[in-house]
Design goal:
Helix content: 25-40%
Strand content: 5-15%
Radius of gyration: 22 Å
CATH superfamily: Glycoside hydrolase/deacetylase
CATH topology: TIM Barrel
Number of helices: 14
CATH class: Alpha Beta
Structural class: alpha/beta
Length: about 425
């Protein structure tokens, strides 16, 4: 069965892709909702990292206007090793973030700190226009929309400054910087209507905004980002999980390695699609405690099934909803961990929906599973590198396991050393 035919729609009652599109377009990534979402507790300061928490910038070869640079191989990367015969696969978990802007709530800083504590790597899907001042919004020419249009608005100059700091530090710590593209257009006028050529324009602009932030912002007090984005960018996630069909030919042509725009994927080992050019890493359907249906492994979809599109639901339900969100992710983890060991993908936004309970749930989940044996908290880039050093025959066996299906006879039977050939009788 190929990767596309494995996909399932969300079961009745769960948030559909259309609902996800409507919700994302209404709220935006990074907290730019029409009505501000209150932050509970004391928000972290915009510059919350202590000096010792900011990685030291290595020697750099500056690129272009000095916005980016080549500092050599990315630090803090695990070595991708081939499974030994009969060896149980690791349990990979990828925590990913759509938008990845640093606002006053300090969520980018918060989860970088959490990752350092647990030696985790993550993927940050950066929205390119988060590095463009609103005063320069006419630089953006979105497909099928007016110049400068954006469904998520633009960050303040201070938040752009803070985001650039966070992105550079995150890469030095070993995290991946992917793309969430730019204007976050969904629904009837969104990316689902774009051609491969229009997606190519969107990507080129996203890359340009990252590689020219110095010119566009005028900031002179920040170092160049420590990576060449032309080499770093190997995958992304489309806004509202729409437009994958138009994106894939362009992504393959650009030499990308994966896409994470699919909705409702099964918890199975990933396969390649688009003629074998790209790994398919869709967000997954995971058990939803208290319900007969499953829910997409993303904070927005869990929220929608609790409070609808209202990001400030009944505060009296926050503790129960946080527990339910945590337990949904943990149920997905346990289903894979105890059976087929398929990688788990969890999608998030730096948002304080329903008082920040989904951020708290994700932190609980990461802290809980990080201590389990064989668990590897990786970026999508790191997962790609591991998959690509495996024996194709071993991968085919892993891909043959269904959701919640343990290997019959154990891992040694499924992936064991082939039987030795019959002994040749001694001469004489």
């Amino acid at each position: 069965m190929d990767a596309l035919s494995r996909r399932t729609l969300l079961a009745a009652g769960a948030a559909t892709a259309a609902t996800l599109a409507a919700g994302c377009a209404a709220s935006g990534d990074g907290g730019r909702a029409a009505a501000p979402v209150p932050v509970t507790g004391t928000p972290a300061a915009a510059h919350s990292d202590s000096p010792e928490a900011v990685p030291k910038q290595p020697p750099a070869t500056v690129i272009g206007d000095g916005s980016t640079s080549d500092t050599g191989p990315q630090p803090n990367q695990p070595r991708a090793e081939q499974l030994k015969p009969g060896e149980r696969p690791p349990q990979f978990v990828v925590f990913s973030w759509d938008g990845a802007g640093e606002l006053d709530n300090g969520l980018f800083s918060r989860f970088r700190k959490l990752a350092r504590t647990h030696k985790a790597s993550m993927t940050f899907f950066l929205s390119g226009i988060y590095l463009v001042p609103e005063s320069k919004k006419t630089l953006y020419h979105p497909p099928q929309h007016s110049i400068g249009a954006s469904d998520i608005g633009y960050l303040s100059d201070q938040h752009i400054h803070d985001t650039i700091e966070q992105v550079g530090a995150a890469w030095l710590e070993g995290h991946e910087i992917g793309t969430h593209f730019n204007g976050h257009f969904c629904g009837a006028n969104g990316g689902g209507k774009w051609s491969p050529e229009e997606w190519d324009s969107e990507i080129e602009q996203a890359m340009g905004f990252v590689m020219n932030w110095r010119t566009n912002t005028g900031f002179t007090d920040l170092p160049a980002l420590p990576f060449d984005y032309r080499k770093e960018l190997i995958g992304g996630r489309t806004p509202c999980l729409e437009g994958q069909r138009g994106l894939l030919p362009t992504a393959a042509k650009r030499g990308w390695k994966y896409d994470s725009s699919g909705p409702g994927g099964l918890q199975v080992w990933p396969q390649k699609f688009q003629g074998g050019a790209l790994w398919d890493f869709p967000l997954q359907s995971v058990p939803f405690p208290g319900h007969s249906f499953q829910v997409l492994s993303m904070d927005y979809n869990i929220m929608y099934n609790q409070s609808g599109s209202n990001t400030k639901g009944d505060a009296g339900m926050y503790p129960a909803w946080q527990t339910q969100a945590r337990d949904a992710y943990l149920a997905g983890f346990e289903r894979a961990y105890s059976t087929n060991r398929a990688p788990l993908y969890i999608g998030n936004h730096f948002e304080q929906w329903n008082g920040g309970i989904y951020m708290n749930a994700v932190e609980e989940v990461l802290t809980t599973i990080a201590a389990r044996p064989d668990v590897r908290l990786v970026s999508f880039r790191q997962l790609v590198e591991w998959l690509e050093v495996q024996d194709p025959a071993v991968l085919r066996k892993l891909q043959g396991l269904g959701p919640g299906q343990a290997p019959a006879g154990g891992w040694e039977t499924l992936l064991g050393t082939p039987a030795a050939p019959p002994a040749v009788p001694a001469a004489g």
